[in-house]
Write a structure and sequence with these properties.
This is Response regulatory domain-containing protein. Keywords: Phosphoprotein. This protein is of the alpha/beta class. It has a single domain (about 5-120), classed as Rossmann fold (3-Layer(aba) Sandwich). About 35% of the residues lie in helices and about 25% in strands. The protein has four helices and seven strands. The strands form two sheets. A five-stranded parallel sheet has the order 2-1-3-6-7, sandwiched between helices. A two-stranded antiparallel ribbon has the order 4-5. Strand 1, helix 1 and strand 2 (about 30-35) form a beta-alpha-beta unit. The N and C termini lie close together (about 10 Å).
């Protein structure tokens, strides 16, 4: 069981995916926040920084890899692990080059997803 103060931020432009992941992670005991717009990641405040960011590669015309590069270049967010996911398995190489700590292809197995979340938070 995770520490109850571990915060996870999920960013995806698909409300159904946001809702499903929110429910799954809350049931595991995490504090979960969701955003449909990647721009929200560029305005994180130090007092509420997540312990993990789960980020879709493609967000309504925005490239999650570009958002990731900005996160990894900023002092206050560079050490936050980022798990990226995409319906395009071929995205894994470019996602890792951009600095992602892990990658999952959609659709993914919930047990595998939770194992990767646990690993990134340990």
């Amino acid at each position: 069981m995770p520490h109850p103060m571990q915060r996870i931020l999920i960013v995806d432009d698909d409300p159904d995916i946001l809702e499903a992941l929110h429910i799954i992670l809350e049931e595991e005991g995490y504090e979960v926040t969701t955003e449909e717009k990647g721009d929200a990641l560029l305005h994180l405040h130090d007092d509420t920084l997540p312990h993990l960011i789960i980020l879709d590669v493609l967000l309504s015309g925005k490239d999650g890899r570009e958002i990731l590069r900005r996160l990894k270049s900023q002092q206050n967010t560079r050490d936050i692990p980022v798990l990226m996911f995409s319906a395009h398995p071929s995205a894994e190489q470019t996602v890792r080059q951009a600095g992602a700590d892990d990658f999952l292809a959609k659709p993914f197995n919930i047990e595998e997803f939770l194992a990767r979340v646990t690993h990134l938070l340990s």
